[in-house]
Amino acid sequence: MTARHETARSGHAALTPANSPIGAMGAMPNHRPEDPRSLAPIGIPLSGRRGRGALTNDSGRFEPKSRTLIDDGWGVNDAPPPLRTVVTAETARSILSRNTSPDLPFDRSVNPYRGCEHGCVYCFARPTHAYMGLSAGLDFESRLFAKPNAATLLAKELSRKGYEPAPIAMGTNTDPYQPIEQTYRITRSILEVLSDFNHPVTIVTKSARVTRDMDILSDMAKRNLVKVALSVTTLDAKLARTMEPRASTPARRMEAMKLLSEAGIPVGVMVAPIIPALTDSEIEKILTGAAYAGAQSAGFVLLRLPLEVRDLFVGWLKENLPDRAEHVMSLIRSMRGGKDYDATFGVRGHGTGPYAWQISRRFEIASKRLGLNRGKWNVDCSKFAVPGQGKQLDLL
């Protein structure tokens, strides 16, 4: 049997609307979950987290108290029931997120959801759940937020006078085709708005569910308004099931590439993340499979371990691959200047050092041999027009 132990974090004030990183929540519901299972931060038995990526559920880094499970000595196995996914409807105030990062190929993005049920243990977006007063661990993949008004907000923002079109990226923070999209269909409603406005979009996903929207995507592709990339980490189905438990299997992602390509939709592959001594041996195999499936472009990203993701990933390694854990982390540090992570722009995605250079060269050589990345493959911003008003560019 376990008991919950709470300790106050030194010099740590509780979040209020005044000091919260996201400001006042307005009419939004209290986002701290009532379900006591979400408050159990570590040591959660397998029965309570089956089909999940994270092993733990440590308190968010902005919380005034850290919660820990301790053994009370009774030796009773009080395993919790399987963790349910709970979705909260969020009334968003805006939907277009802007960035000025010099190493990103886009300056705006749309995220229809917060959190991601795919549960990829390595996901660099996990720390964003702390802004909701929740954990980057199991909360991130089970306490989700949907934005039902996303399409309406997007139409308003695109209709504003002086808006200048540029490709909108989807799949930059959480996956737009995660399982709850099957019910909420928010991503599809966003695509319908973008199609109406002749607005270009790029999509990155780990889900074969993207093929559901081939009718819209193929129509947009005829106007050169869309690019889709499937993210593939490994071709090993067993490893993928453990590391990214609710994402589509690698085989289904490859099949999705083939279907999209046959429908005339420009498709690419993201070999991401590349994990040294675990998945880096598959770079050439993934690129070869993607090229045969019809991919025209390819990119890669090295494993990133910001903030809470480091402990989550190391914990996962020690439980699932204890014999390789230290070697994997040693190679990661060799590509991060001796640290577990380096957030420097231009470095965070590809790393530095001999091992990082070797990965980059292998990727470059294989891509060239397979005919990937031969063209720029740009989407067209010139067709953008507010419905009923003609081309927006004529108004600038």
Describe the fold and architecture:
The protein has one domain (2-373): Alpha-Beta Horseshoe (pyruvate-formate lyase- activating enzyme), CATH 3.80.30.30. 28% of the residues lie in helices and 16% in strands. The chain has helices at residues 46-49, 138-142, 150-158, 181-184, 186-196, 214-222, 237-243, 250-262, 283-293, 308-320, 325-334, 354-369, and strands spanning 2-8, 65-71, 86-89, 96-98, 108-110, 113-114, 143-146, 168-170, 201-205, 226-232, 267-274, 297-302, 385-386, 390-391. Helix 3 (150-158) runs parallel beside helix 5 (186-196). It is globular and about 70 Å long. Strands 4-5-8-9-10-11-12 form a 7-stranded mixed β-sheet. The chain has 396 residues and is of the alpha/beta class. It has 12 helices and 14 strands. The longest helix has 16 residues, at 354-369.
Give the structure's gist in a few sentences.
With 396 residues, this protein is of the alpha/beta class.
Write a concise keyword list for the protein shown above:
3-stranded mixed β-sheet, alpha/beta, disordered C terminus, globular, 14 strands, 7-stranded mixed β-sheet, 396 residues, pyruvate-formate lyase- activating enzyme
Task: Tell me the layout of helices and strands.
Layout: E1 2-8, H1 46-49, E2 65-71, E3 86-89, E4 96-98, E5 108-110, E6 113-114, H2 138-142, E7 143-146, H3 150-158, E8 168-170, H4 181-184, H5 186-196, E9 201-205, H6 214-222, E10 226-232, H7 237-243, H8 250-262, E11 267-274, H9 283-293, E12 297-302, H10 308-320, H11 325-334, H12 354-369, E13 385-386, E14 390-391
Parallel strand pairs: 3-7, 5-8, 8-9, 9-10, 10-11, 11-12
Antiparallel strand pairs: 1-2, 4-5, 6-7, 13-14
Helix pairs in contact: 3-5, 5-6, 8-9, 9-12
